[in-house]
Design a protein that fits this description.
single chain, mainly beta, SH3 type barrels
Length: 632
């Protein structure tokens, strides 16, 4: 770490001035004071200053609970010199205080909210905070009433039920301020609250006529924004939450627009590569807030069974549903899909570097590819077999055997037994068929495992990325390491594909697509880490490597072992994460987090050529080890 002896100057890098921080108790603050010999206090706490003037502190979040703004007061001193600074942050506000007596509702706590499309008979969970001990009901436009149950030991096992007027005594009082219940979507319940007659997916359908707040426009609805806390009036026909105590009663509209779907419209997946964070796949999830489970190429079609604001629910087969982002769909108005797609002939053709399977279908269906050793399974949802012809093509030693299985009435499995574990795969839809390319492992020389290999090196960011205490930008450090890695790989005989070579921003889609189009055999994305608010950086820093597909876990392990030896930082282990640069299927792909930008010593090391060389050397040796284990 190079000493710095410049003039005193307080520069807080994080948190940014007037920014909101999520931590309520303790949080980190870091930056520089311009001189490594200075002393620094923050809100009276002595903070260590590094020789280069950088500092990192883990301190109580300033301010008084309940105040939205708070201040870090910094004082830097050197001999008879002193510089003061005030750094403002915004604190998270505590939940609204609810006490017995007056009828109160914490409107920010009301869930669900926004726009939902549901099936007839579907249960809709209702939850909110209100005055403890109150009688809380949901009043529907039809005149029906749903009692909301307080969450407390007294009410354990009880569930909210439809009632017409009277609240059961067993749930009349509780010290809990959280109430919940289930509303069953059924006709008729009332205009503007449940709208069973309109098709909300139809072209030109208007949400404004049905939404229970006059102050919300259609754009806000689509974005799922919160409703105003105090609408000027409750529109006719809306569901209303009523909170009643012995002395008071208050009512607010339920911030939810619900449609009962009368049919199952069809969508086609349409990825937006220009959007931030997109990598060419449409991600499917088991629940709208769950992690990635499926990865589909654009063109797949499915029936819609529901919506939750910016997500839609798809029927894959009779027992499987998936959630995708609404903005990654195109509505195919007037188009219907048969209950099941008929799978016809399956043909294989061998090439030098890949095996091509063509599955003939009447329309693009949801799919999943699973790899277990030398066995690959293609799952087709909503499909049944009419596969009289399985054509192997000319003899290819890589293809051992093929069989199909009807796992259920609308789930088709194509089993492909291979001579070796596939190196990767990719799926696309051609006219009238699904195309599956299975990549053969490259021929690797044990003595020179990198000779002839094609390696994609991705210097992570920009856009985004973290910044260190002395304002070293992560993208700059990543590129320095990646450039050294490129030189090392080429010296060992590899062809290197760089996803960027300068400071210009590159989209995630362009990075992964470039690596695939150039037939890269391995993709490594170089990064350095940071932490979210509320996590102690002194206890949580080190080196880690992330993968997504199980076939990339061995590569992640090899890189982690060698990075630890080369860099000497704490072992945070490998991890599976749904990261765009770790999700490509055509080649093993991993993302490294070598050091932590926010740790002053590690940021300083990342400025040092020797440390950059060590980082690059660790990646090089990890790739070399991984390839050597797969050599002939």
């Amino acid at each position: 770490m190079s000493p710095r002896s410049g003039p005193l100057a307080i520069d807080v890098v994080y948190p940014p001035d007037s920014s909101f921080i999520a931590a309520r108790d303790s949080n980190f603050i870091f930056g520089s004071v311009g001189n490594g010999n200075a002393r620094l206090t923050i809100n009276g706490y002595e903070v260590a200053v590094q020789p280069n003037g950088a500092f990192l502190a883990w301190l109580p979040v300033p301010g008084v609970p309940g105040d939205s703004f708070a201040e870090y007061r910094l004082k830097a001193s050197l001999g008879d010199q002193a510089v003061d600074g005030v750094h403002t942050i915004r604190r998270p506000l505590p939940p609204m205080k609810l006490t017995s007596g007056s009828a109160m509702i914490d409107e920010t706590s009301m869930t669900p909210r926004g726009s939902w499309w549901v099936r007839e008979g579907e249960a809709i969970p209702i939850s909110l905070r209100a005055t403890p001990g109150a009688v809380v009901r949901l009043l529907l436009a039809s005149g029906d009433t749903l009692a909301l149950v307080p969450e407390s030991p007294e009410a354990s096992g009880a569930s909210a039920i439809w009632v017409l007027g009277r609240i059961p005594t067993s749930i009349r009082r509780s010290s809990s301020s959280r109430y919940h219940g289930e509303l069953i979507a059924q006709e008729p319940v009332g205009r503007a609250y449940l709208a069973p007659t309109l098709n909300p997916m139809a072209a030109g359908a208007s949400f404004d006529d049905w939404y229970c707040s006059p102050a919300v426009d259609s754009l806000a609805i689509h974005d799922g924004e919160n409703l105003p806390a105090e609408p000027s009036e409750i529109p006719d026909g809306c569901a209303v939450v009523e909170v009643a105590t012995r002395v008071d009663t208050t009512r607010v509209p339920l911030p939810l627009d619900i449609w009962i779907q009368s049919d199952r419209p069809v969508i086609e997946l349409h990825e937006q590569p220009s959007a931030a964070g997109r990598d060419g796949f449409v991600v499917g999830r088991a629940a709208r807030d769950a992690t990635t489970l499926w990865m589909w190429v654009p063109g797949m079609r499915a029936r819609v069974t529901g919506r939750r604001d910016g997500s839609v629910r798809l029927a894959l087969d009779h027992q499987t549903e998936a959630w995708v982002a609404l903005d990654e769909t195109v509505w195919l108005h007037g188009l219907t899909l048969p209950a099941r797609a008929r799978v016809e002939t399956v043909r294989f053709k061998g090439f030098t570097d890949r095996l091509h399977a063509q599955v003939f279908l009447p329309h693009p269906v949801p799919y999943q590819v699973e790899i277990d050793g030398n066995h690959l399974t293609l799952i087709l949802y909503g499909a049944y077999s009419n596969t009289d012809w399985l054509r192997y093509g000319a003899n290819d030693p890589f293809l051992r055997s093929v069989s199909w299985q009807q796992a259920s009435s609308d789930r088709y499995l194509l089993h492909i037994e291979l001579a070796e574990r596939p190196w990767g795969y990719r799926v696309r839809y051609d006219s009238g068929s699904l195309s599956l390319e299975i990549r053969k492992p490259p021929t690797i020389d044990e003595r020179k495992p990198l000779k002839g290999r094609v390696i994609a090196v991705d210097p992570g960011h920009p856009p985004a990325g973290s910044t260190g205490p002395t304002r070293l930008y992560e993208a700059e450090a990543n590129l320095a390491v990646a450039s050294r890695l490129k030189r090392m790989l080429e010296e060992d005989g590899a062809t290197v594909i760089m996803t960027r070579t300068d400071s210009g921003a590159v989209r995630l889609y362009d990075r992964t697509r470039h690596a695939e189009m150039m037939d890269a055999e391995i993709l490594v994305s170089i990064h350095n880490n940071a932490l979210p608010d509320g996590v102690n950086p002194f206890e949580n820093n080190g080196t880690s490597v992330f993968y997504f597909h199980p076939g990339s876990s061995d590569l992640a392990q090899a890189l982690q072992r060698n990075l630890l030896m080369a860099m000497g930082l704490r072992d945070l282990g490998i991890g599976r994460a749904s990261l765009a640069l770790a999700r490509p299927t055509w080649m093993p792909a991993v993302l490294t987090e070598g050091a932590f930008m926010m740790i002053p010593e590690q940021e300083a090391a990342l400025r040092n050529a020797q440390f950059q060389e060590a980082y690059a050397r660790g990646v090089l040796e990890g790739i070399r080890e991984y390839l050597r284990e797969r050599s002939e």
